[in-house]
């Protein structure tokens, strides 16, 4: 039966033509000159060949709107096979990708240059030289569409480095272009059959296969369409549109896969949203209680850990003494993780300054049963060079009366701001010179359990007071200016600034920060009985003048909100310590939100957020230069206090507007 279907598909797709999407002078033969490179491949739908598809090798544009450049062009034969010859691009970091355009109904529109064949299958080659045969099928198209979602408009790929290059590499985590199978990272633990992501990718590929067969194209394009925008005109753009707004028409899209099983295993019911989330673990024995992450200029991820890795959570563990660093594809950078500089039990505080130096705040986390005295270890910050060499002494930098430090941020001038959760104060390190650090204590009850810190467009620092239900505003030189209360601020944790000068605050509503005598075990006990969204979980907007709306923003995507971040479009992302979900809100720049939404409205589904069975209890959320959203699986859902740490970073692929890194206050679009 499968052979019969394949034969029918081959017959159906024979004799296809394209609508002059690239200049007709581009052919399978390169211009005279140096010895050309050769790229072979095959175009498939499921296991069947796609004949007479127009195959084009493109070089992606190097900036938004630049347009992709065709390097070679040919057609697939009756078996779906093709060969292209082309010259090496001038730029070594040029991103290459293959497209195969086909019209399953066999229509001929050679004279209509506006017409685009509805089927476009894609394989991302990336910056590496092609090796062997490349397969283009629906799975590689899903991988390309999600990873390149923030760099794809009108079916062409373009963007700035390093985001574009990193995104192309991430595509290989999802699909193996050598044979069209599942990518190694997606196929193996802690992904594979441990989460639903693999089944999601396969189901999306099955949805595309309906269009490739000529049966569901118009339905697919109508469902992928964004509010107020024209529908996509071909399958690759449809995937990218779904990736950018994955909560829209989720059940209706799932119905398009009914009766199709070219890609297995697949989902058995519709998801709440078509997100693709991968778990990353570095070398597999380093991440334990990741608290936060910061990205350097190349987009590599620097991750702090609460605990020393131990595979068995029943065995007591002490504070982590390593600084993890992962590539954009989730692998340990050669030479990492890094040690020294006084690192011990870092919590929520990590930042990278304008010179690329990494700062990690040593909170002194450790599991119950550790014989060390954390009181002697939670009074410092560690500093590292951009290549991971410690600059701080073995005991860390201890100037500025640091006590149980949590949130840490660098501004554009290189000043480092540290929230002293156990000291009711903030430490400011001017120009990154730790010996000049000074302590800023507003006094009284205005700042109790300071936790999160962010810097706004004017260089002012904003610090959340988890124990005072407040946010303290400090001048660029550290002078306390005002304490903001009201507007729903309750048990605030993280804070983030946007490009318009606003500050966004994640109100946990119930989490008591584990400092000033509160232990992690007490936190676990306090939230143990919270099994539905807490009534006071919310997000507060603070305007540049310190005022807030009368009411905070509330929806069921918010469940013990902890970390918060703003992307390159000024939309707001919230990590939750409960509920296994990521929330996305319309920011203050409403023109960047889906049509009809206003500031504070949920972009993610209001009832669920973006859920994922790959999530545990999350603290941090940050955006990388490719538009991937990283969350820290900080605690296990049911934690054992001997070692409650989660073991992964979870990365939602292509979901947010890219951000230039390192993050120095407000986000800057890539």
UniProtKB/TrEMBL annotation:
GO terms for molecular function: zinc ion binding. The keyword Signal applies. Residues 1-20 form the signal peptide. It comes from the Bacteria. The keyword Signal applies. Keywords: Signal. InterPro entries: 6-blade_b-propeller_TolB-like, TRIM-NHL_E3_ligases. Residues 596-617 are annotated as: Disordered. This is NHL repeat-containing protein.
């Amino acid at each position: 039966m499968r052979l019969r279907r394949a034969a029918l598909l081959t017959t159906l797709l024979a004799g296809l033509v394209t609508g002059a999407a690239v200049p007709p002078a581009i052919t399978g033969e390169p211009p005279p000159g140096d010895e050309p490179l050769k790229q072979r491949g095959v175009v498939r739908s499921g296991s069947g060949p796609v004949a007479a598809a127009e195959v084009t090798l493109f070089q992606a544009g190097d900036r938004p709107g630049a347009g992709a450049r065709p390097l070679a062009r040919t057609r697939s034969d009756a078996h779906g096979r093709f060969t292209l010859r082309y010259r090496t691009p001038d730029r070594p970091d040029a991103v290459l990708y293959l497209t195969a355009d086909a019209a399953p109904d066999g229509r001929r529109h050679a004279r209509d240059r506006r017409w685009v064949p509805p089927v476009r299958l894609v394989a991302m080659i990336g910056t590496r030289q092609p090796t062997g045969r490349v397969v283009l099928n629906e799975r590689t198209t899903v991988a390309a569409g999600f990873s390149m979602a923030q760099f794809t408009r009108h079916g062409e790929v373009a963007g700035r480095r390093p985001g574009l290059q990193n995104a192309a590499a991430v595509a290989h985590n999802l699909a193996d272009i050598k044979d069209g199978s599942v990518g190694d990272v997606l196929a193996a633990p802690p992904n594979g059959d441990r989460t639903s992501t693999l089944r999601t990718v396969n189901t999306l590929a099955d949805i595309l296969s309906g269009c490739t067969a000529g049966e569901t194209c118009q339905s697919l394009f109508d469902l992928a369409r964004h509010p107020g925008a024209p529908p996509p005109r071909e399958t690759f753009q449809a995937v990218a549109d779904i990736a950018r707004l994955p909560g829209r028409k989720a059940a209706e899209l799932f119905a398009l896969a009914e009766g199709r099983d070219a890609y297995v295993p697949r989902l058995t019911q519709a998801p709440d949203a078509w997100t693709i989330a991968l778990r990353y673990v570095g070398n597999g024995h380093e991440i334990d209680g990741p608290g936060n992450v910061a990205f350097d200029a190349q987009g590599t991820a620097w991750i702090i850990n609460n605990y020393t890795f131990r595979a068995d959570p029943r065995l007591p563990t002490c504070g982590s003494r390593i600084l993890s660093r992962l590539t954009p594809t989730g692998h340990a950078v050669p030479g990492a993780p890094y040690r020294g500089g006084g690192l011990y039990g870092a919590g929520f505080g990590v930042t990278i300054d304008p010179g690329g130096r990494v700062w990690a705040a040593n909170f002194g986390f450790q599991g119950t049963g550790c014989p060390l005295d954390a009181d002697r270890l939670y009074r410092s910050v560690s500093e590292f060079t951009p290549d991971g060499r410690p600059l701080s002494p073995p005991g860390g930098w201890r100037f500025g009366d640091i006590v149980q430090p949590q949130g840490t941020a660098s501004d554009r001038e290189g000043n480092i701001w540290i929230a002293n959760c156990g000291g009711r104060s903030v430490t400011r390190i001017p120009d990154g010179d730790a010996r000049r650090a000074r302590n800023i204590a507003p006094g009284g009850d205005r700042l109790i359990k300071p936790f999160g810190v962010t810097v706004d467009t004017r260089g002012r620092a904003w610090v959340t007071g988890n124990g005072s239900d407040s946010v303290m505003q400090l001048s660029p030189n550290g002078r306390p200016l005002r304490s903001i209360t009201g507007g729903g601020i309750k048990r605030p944790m993280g804070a983030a600034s946007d490009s318009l000068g606003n500050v966004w605050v994640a109100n946990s509503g119930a989490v008591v920060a584990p400092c000033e005598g509160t232990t992690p075990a007490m936190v676990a006990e306090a939230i143990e009985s919270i099994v539905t969204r807490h009534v006071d979980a919310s997000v507060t907007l603070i305007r540049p003048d310190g005022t807030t709306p009368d009411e905070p923003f509330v929806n069921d995507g918010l469940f013990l909100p902890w970390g918060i971040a703003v992307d390159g479009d000024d939309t707001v992302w919230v990590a939750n310590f409960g509920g296994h979900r990521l929330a996305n809100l319309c920011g203050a720049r409403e023109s960047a939100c889906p049509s009809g939404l206003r500031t504070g409205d949920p972009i993610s589904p209001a009832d669920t957020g973006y859920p994922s069975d790959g999530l545990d209890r999350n603290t941090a959320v940050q955006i990388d230069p490719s538009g991937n959203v990283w969350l820290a699986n900080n605690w296990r859902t049911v934690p054992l206090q001997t070692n409650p740490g989660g073991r992964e970073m979870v990365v939602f692929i292509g979901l947010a507007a890219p951000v230039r890194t390192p993050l120095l206050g407000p986000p800057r679009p890539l």
